[in-house]
Amino acid sequence: MLLVFMVLVTLSTGLVFAGGQQESQKAEKLVIWTNLTAEAQTVVLTKQFNEIADEMGIDIEMVTVSFGDMYTKLATAMQSGDVPDIMHTNEGGVAYLYANDMLTPMNEVIGKIGKDDFVKSYLDILTVNGTVWGVPDWALHTSVWYRKDLFEKYGLNIPRNWDELMKTAKALNIDNDSDGNIDIYGFAVSMSAVNVAAQVYYEFLYSAGVYTFDPKTGEYIFGKNKKKATEVLQYMIDLYHAASPPSSIEWAWSEFRNALVEGNVAMTQDMGAVILMAQSNNPEMVGKLGCFDLPGVNGDKKASFGGSYNFVASNQGDEEKVKLAKIFLEKLYTPERAAERALSRPMFAFPSMYSAFDIYKKADSVSQYQDEVDVIYDAFQHSTWYRYGMEAGLNQMASQIEATTFFGEAIQSAALGKWTAEEAVDYIDQMLQEQLSIIGD
Amino acid sequence: MYPVDAFLGQNGMSKEMVMENSEQAYLIKSTKQGRNIFLNFYTRRKLLGVIFILPTILFLVVFILYPVLSNLFLSLTDACLTKKNYNFIGFENYLKLFTNKMFLKYSWNTLVWTFFSVIGQLVLGLGLAMLINYQTIGGPFLRGFLLIPYVVPAVALALITKWIFNGDYGIASKWLQNIGLIDYKQSPLALPGGAMAVLIFVNIWRSYPFPMLIYWAALKGIDTELYEAAGVDGANRFQSFWFITLPQLKNTTIVLAILRIVWTATYFDLIWMVTGGGPAGSTTHLPIMIYQSSFGTFRIGYASAISILLGIVLFVCIIYYVRKSGDFAD
Amino acid sequence: MRIRENIMKQTKIYNKPNLLRNCVLGLISVFFIGVVGFPLLWMVVSSLKPATELFKSPPTIFSDTITFEWYLDAFSNKTVVRYFINSLLVATGTTVIVIVMATFGAYGLTRFRFFGRKAVTVAVLSAYCIPPIMLMIPLYRIIARMHLNSSLFGVIIGHTTVTFPFAIWLLISFFRSIPRDIEEAALVNGASDLTIFFRIVLPLCVPGILSTGILVFILSWNEYLLASVLISQDSMKTLTVGIANYISSTEINWGVIMALGTATTVPIVLMFTAIQKYFVEGLTAGAVKG
User: What is the average per-residue pLDDT within A168-174?
Assistant: First the structure.
């Protein structure tokens, strides 16, 4: 009996460790983390990483750490000294590593790939005083995705300011069977407390020119702009009451995308991922969807909400390792490879290099959306876009907003009428300042 | 003849007593044979007992006692997951908590969640225990079936809940919409009161089997003579339930209630996966606040302080429970 | 013995043939079977509906066509298969460690008398009440310090902490219910303690140990909080954490989610049904005393 137990214990422990650790015999090995966990994306990354590793004659270990776990995992890694050599992450992750002094400057690598080939706005986010701290891979951009067929059917035009948006949204509250219940809602205002509420609110805030930090001085200015922030929130809540499904207060990405794809709403904010969802869940809808940029309050749009994925290299390894990582990154940025990575999430991810974009645009998966591709790529090149808290460059605030729910709680409370918009903005301001004091410590 | 039998014969002790004293019996035998192993024997037995429970003790110390003490210590520091060093800051975390208006709100949510969940599962548990106790046809099947929720993974339950209460396609939402309880295309999960009510309902669904079983065992243990006597006195069924069954179940109920209060107040998975604490923080209870403070803002010192405050309340319950089930502790 | 007599008497009292009573009880039973069964049934039914039926409003109870596409979808994903394997390894590892420790522990606590025995029993009982949320932060730090947070062993340790007190609690009542006569006799006969434990006690306790083991397996399989905190590498996640991520991910696919939910729940329910008899005995034996 004891023998059986012992054998079992040994076996299971062995299995566990076999699963957890795979020691390599080769001397040179790069550890690469990515936040991308969707299979289509990891498949491409794995393929490219292996190709390059073979080319260079080194070994790699790719670890997928999902977005939600990233900060915790990074914190643990920093404390135990297991920081990856290369990391593929959004600006939040870059800012976090930068703040903790863990990154190698990338100017040299970008120079070798060709600085002019990169869209400027992609590089700007990662640049502090002339030093670029990462190599941008691709970025996403928030637009309003809408039902072209419904706009046509009801003779509606693309709204040019917030008043028109409200009117258009109301006009698209459609009761098909005249039973008194709205079957298609005009505009989904999604407010899931995890990330989504903050993203939607920030798209409205940026359109109206309200920022967390002053883009020029870097000073915290949300508190000074509370009046405007309150108006923006009030508009968002009015839009919710006027034209959004009541349950959208709890909607996250999947719900609002599904609602558009299944034909329950006529407009929603999104980053182009609806397309992939339409292709897999409701192909009929694919041809009926289009996008436009959320207008500014009076038509003068200030900025929009976006985000990027980037490769960064750690400065923790020895000189050899850092050099190796740089060569590895350089090899990742051929136009073909960059385009292939962005195309693993078509219409959502837009490549950072012009040369890659040329390939991207011709790809089958986006061929049907040439107009939309142009709208979005134009925004990337010519207008301003930020991730929350990053208006003045790399800032850890993004991670604090991402990992907490105070934005969502305040916005939902206001939408439910438990708080006034003013109280909600006050609370957000108070929490932002509290987070600021923690980061500042 | 074994010495035990001789022992039994000579002293006329009951068999049970002999069993208790068999170690001595063995000793008597040994001493009779002139082997002086008295100390040896006891030492050996004790040593062996200690060896048997050594892993248990070690484990309890390293993975239960140490974490609890570590929590206590951390709560007095400004420890942050993102920083390597931390300072001792006394009771500052506790002071911050008491001045945080959200702490009061989340504590209240915890109270509501715990109170209704526990009441619900005890009442339902008792009701169903009586049902399976009296049910004659298909009794074992019924009991087996009613026990299933005990092992349904919280994650499966959470996704079922999200699906059947989906505003557009959820069948339960549809029913609620049809009877006019909520608006068309609305989901109770998007309403503050509704979300809490759904969560409590689902929690009762998943946790009544344990009280049901315990009550069932307790019901079987009630002396039937009491009922017979009551029957003779002309008590009806309700009266015998009220005056006999309930008082007999008092101790069971207390122990059960304490156990379930502790588990419900600290139960995280279901709420987290169904609503994440929303909408508008209406289902955020203290465990979610702890989680958010640890892995949202990374302030583990602050999170530990919440967990200690929650712990103190529960500790009182635990002590009471351990004393109440003193029989069990033997 | 007493209990059995009571049951017989109670049955006699309450089970006078009464059609009305049986009908009422039957109806109540059917009602509760419905309440318990419906959500699970709905999950299974939903996992077999094609997309067109799934997103039909109002929903149909049974769809005209049955499809296994969601299952194929779910299990053609390598990560999902990995989650299953991880959960299996974690639950098995936890069960083995917990059962070995708890069997020795429960035997030690019920059969030996030594200083501090009562204290340990009380400690086990208290540990049973300490919730995972309170152990979360320190455990996370311990595991991180031991560099176990990217191996399954960290989760196994976590799950051991939450299941061990429950296992030992159950086993103590199993051991108590086994008459000591045989052991006494063997002891008197000069058998060594270890021989008694391995040759006599363990074989007698096999049903109890087995069912406790399966319960520990189920608890570990179902556990979410610690598994999500102690593992951050995607390929090392357990099934519960994987599915929970799926729910909050950017592309939720209800069909796949329902298929995964069904695939997670069904084996567990079947396992539980198999050991239910022992579980009921074990739990109620302890409960009657307490």
Answer: 95
Contacts of C14 in chain B (CB under 8 A): 134
State whether C272 and C171 are in the same domain.
yes
Evaluate if residue B26 carries a pLDDT over 60.
no
Nearest by CB to A65, which of C93, C198, C233?
Answer: C233
| Average of per-residue pLDDT across C254-258 | 87
Name every chain C residue with its beta carbon within 8 A of the beta carbon of B145: 33, 36-37
Nearest to C247 among B70, B146, B273 (CB): B273
What is the interface pTM, i.e. ipTM, of the complex? 0.86
Is B184's CB within 8 Å of A72's CB?
Answer: no
Residues 6+ apart with CB under 8 A from B139: B132
Same domain, B154 and B300: yes
Kindly tell me the sign of the dihedral angle through the C-alpha atoms of B73, B76, B81, B83. Answer: negative
Q: Which of B272, C165, C52 is nearest to A193 (CA)?
A: B272
> Same domain, yes or no, for B163 and B53?
no
**Measured in Å, how far apart are chain B's first and last C-alpha atoms?**
33
Asked if A438 lies within 8 A of B183 by C-beta distance, the reply is no
Do A298 and A342 sit in the same domain of this protein? no
CA distance from start to end of chain C: 18
CATH number at residue B166: 1.10.3720.10
Q: Is residue C82 part of a domain?
A: yes
* Contact call for residues B128 and B212 (beta carbons, < 8 A): yes
Residue A72 shares a structural domain with residue A123: yes
pTM of the model: 0.86
Please give the tally of structural domains in chain C: 2
Domain of residue A115, residue span: 29-139+307-379
State what percent of residues in chain A have pLDDT above 90.
Answer: 59
**pLDDT tens-digit series, residues B82-126:** 777 788 999 999 999 998 888 999 999 999 999 999 999 999 999
Q: Do C104 and B52 touch (CB under 8 A)?
A: yes
Instruction: Please report, for the domain that includes residue C118, its CATH number.
Output: 1.10.3720.10
- Give the residue numbers spanning the domain of B300: 92-329
- Extract the tokens encoding A371: 């107009």
Mean pLDDT value of segment C284-290: 49
φ/ψ of residue C232, rounded to 5: -120, -10
CB contact under 8 A, C250 and A273: yes
CA distances from C267 to A232, C221, C264 (A): 51, 11, 7
Based on the fold, state whether residues B155 and B299 are members of the same structural domain.
Answer: yes
Supply the CATH number for residue A253's domain. Answer: 3.40.190.10
Count of residues for chain A?
A: 441
